[in-house]
Write a sequence for this structure.
């Protein structure tokens, strides 16, 4: 049979490049996970299989606080940014093309374009001024910051879902006696749901993972898991960090699996 | 604004313009039509003629720029679609993909706030009517195109609307299924007694199913009538040309006869006196014989055999080309040869004067 089209997989060296890429992607993670079960303190030295570092991390009060902070911030940020992103997506797709639409898209997706360190420094300065003026402390600043930079991650999947939706379905609902609110609740929202869930999960994972902005904005005692780990690295690298990392990895994989199963069921 | 008691929908002087100022396009230009209770009424025309716009105005998806629309004598011009006792079968069906077949059919009833038991009973009844009882709990994506079509029908009929609007609902189906659905639609209309307003660009669909047809072009209704009226007595050149095949003869009107450029004259009843006139005649109404027996002389140009009939392309003395459709004899040979001189006669009442 004659070859009808260009096929990248038939190029020489394709297999070796692919294998190399996968090794680079997954070997570090594999190493991290394997050494989290190492009984020895030193990285290169394998003693025997042990769950000690997990137990240590679990018992560590500072890890517990950091985990709690991370989960509170990520959950709040995911909810807030998804709510904002849903409204933004409805506002930018449910209308005829208007002047400055592209400009609005760029504005909404600012966190994807402005260097994170710039956002971090500007938030530090602004929040510093607010804290000085009002004296209000607390996790609220971190939640606000995380919500802001999570918006594009929630917005993009929701917008994609809305743009793929047949508007005739809303017309059909109105034709079948549904008021505008019932149309939204019974037709638009259920059809958007896979996009909303995807957006929320993406926002959650991105928030959970953030170091730069958190490091700048946090006050004393407001460590999240990533900033706690960064702090530990400055002192001594123990497999306890591996264990925490493996835990974070597990949460992410679980969320992505759950998301995959949810969207597959909905379609 | 008064209308007769048997009028379901009365469209009065409706204008629909899209765009602003000089760039505005009149999709509907002063349209008036009365649709009777319980009739199968078809809006027929080429794409862009305004037929779908008129349907959307009746459904309430668009608001007219001018004019009023009455339903059973009541002004519904400014009512939103969810307040109109009118349901639509969409061209794309627009079934809700996140709901089952039964949930789709029940949607309108639930929105009307009917009690659960009644919703259930009516849904079952509708699914039985379109013979989909066995598919109630399927997702709509698991159905074939023809089945989805029937769900769309059941969903739109379930709330027992005063008028059912159908926007080219058969266009996505293949020929066999389309013909079956034409019969199905007619049956549903007779069983339910609901007024159907059907939009199509397919003249055969319109002729076979409709009680009355409105032929539209350029945002105007050209003619309203039964299939027979529109086919046999088209009002103007557009209708004659759009419905079926037609031969046009033009000439001067003299003493009730049409005088062609060749000097030959043919008597046409009802021809208006004086000036240039256009007369139509359908290809199947031509009779060919010996040259001296006809009212018009012609030469056979080409013969095309179609099985049941033979199309004979003729040139008149003045060069006008016309077509005669002759029923093929048992032998299949029409007994004509290309280049042969023939005389044309017309069947009684076959010549019709039309407006330009």
């Amino acid at each position: 049979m004659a070859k009808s089209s260009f096929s990248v997989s038939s190029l020489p060296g394709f297999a070796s490049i692919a294998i190399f890429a996968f090794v680079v992607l997954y070997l570090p993670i594999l190493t991290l996970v394997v050494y989290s079960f190492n009984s020895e303190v030193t990285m290169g030295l394998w003693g025997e299989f042990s769950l000690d570092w997990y137990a240590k991390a679990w018992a560590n009060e500072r890890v517990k606080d950091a985990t709690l902070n991370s989960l509170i911030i990520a959950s709040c940020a995911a909810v807030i940014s998804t709510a904002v992103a849903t409204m933004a997506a409805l506002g930018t797709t449910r209308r005829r093309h208007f002047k400055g639409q592209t400009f609005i898209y760029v504005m909404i997706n600012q966190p994807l374009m402005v260097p994170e360190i710039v956002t971090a420094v500007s938030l530090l300065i602004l929040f510093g001024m607010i804290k000085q003026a009002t004296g209000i402390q607390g996790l609220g600043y971190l939640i606000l910051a995380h919500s802001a930079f999570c918006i594009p991650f929630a917005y993009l999947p929701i917008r994609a879902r809305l743009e793929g939706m047949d508007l005739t379905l809303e017309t059909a609902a109105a034709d079948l006696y549904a008021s505008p609110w019932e149309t939204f609740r019974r037709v638009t929202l259920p059809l958007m749901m896979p996009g909303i869930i995807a957006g929320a999960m993406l926002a959650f994972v991105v928030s959970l993972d953030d170091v730069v902005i958190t490091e700048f904005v946090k006050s004393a005692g407001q460590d999240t898991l990533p900033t706690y780990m960064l702090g530990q690295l400055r002192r001594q690298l123990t497999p306890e960090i591996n264990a925490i990392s493996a835990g974070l990895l597990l949460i992410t994989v679980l969320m992505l699996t759950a998301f995959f199963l949810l969207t597959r069921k909905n379609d | 604004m008064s209308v007769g008691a048997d009028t379901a929908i009365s469209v009065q002087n409706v204008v629909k313009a899209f765009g602003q100022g000089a760039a505005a396009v009149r999709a509907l230009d002063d349209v008036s039509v009365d649709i009777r209770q319980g009739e199968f009424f078809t809006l027929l025309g080429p794409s862009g003629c305004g037929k779908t716009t008129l349907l959307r105005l009746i459904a309430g998806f668009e608001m007219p720029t001018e004019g009023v629309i009455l339903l059973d004598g009541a002004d519904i011009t400014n009512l939103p679609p969810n307040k109109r006792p009118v349901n639509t079968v969409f061209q794309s069906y627009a079934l809700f993909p996140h709901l089952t077949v039964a949930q789709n059919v029940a949607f309108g009833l639930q929105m009307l706030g009917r009690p659960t038991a009644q919703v259930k009973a009516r849904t079952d009844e509708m699914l039985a009517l379109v013979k989909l009882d066995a598919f109630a709990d399927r997702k709509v994506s698991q159905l074939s195109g023809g089945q989805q079509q029937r769900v769309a029908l059941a969903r739109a009929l379930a709330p027992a609307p005063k008028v059912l609007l159908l926007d080219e609902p058969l266009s996505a189906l293949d020929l066999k299924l389309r013909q079956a659905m034409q019969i199905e639609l007619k049956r549903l209309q007779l069983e339910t007694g609901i007024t159907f307003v059907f939009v199509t660009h397919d003249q055969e669909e319109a002729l076979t199913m409709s009680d009355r047809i409105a032929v539209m072009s350029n945002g105007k209704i050209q003619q309203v009538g039964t299939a027979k009226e529109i086919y046999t007595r088209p009002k103007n050149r557009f209708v004659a040309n759009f419905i079926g095949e037609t031969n046009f003869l033009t000439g001067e009107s003299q003493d009730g006869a049409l005088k062609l450029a060749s000097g030959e004259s043919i008597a046409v009843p009802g021809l208006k006196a004086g000036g240039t006139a256009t007369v139509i005649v359908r290809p199947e109404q031509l009779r060919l014989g010996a040259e001296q027996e006809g009212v018009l002389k012609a030469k056979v140009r080409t013969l095309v055999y179609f099985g049941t009939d033979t199309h004979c392309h003729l040139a008149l003395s003045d060069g006008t080309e016309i077509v005669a459709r002759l029923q093929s004899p048992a032998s299949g040979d029409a007994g004509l040869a290309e280049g042969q001189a023939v005389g044309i006669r017309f069947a009684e009442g076959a010549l019709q004067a039309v407006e330009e």
About this structure: The radius of gyration of chain A is 23 Å. DSSP finds twelve helices and no strands in chain A.
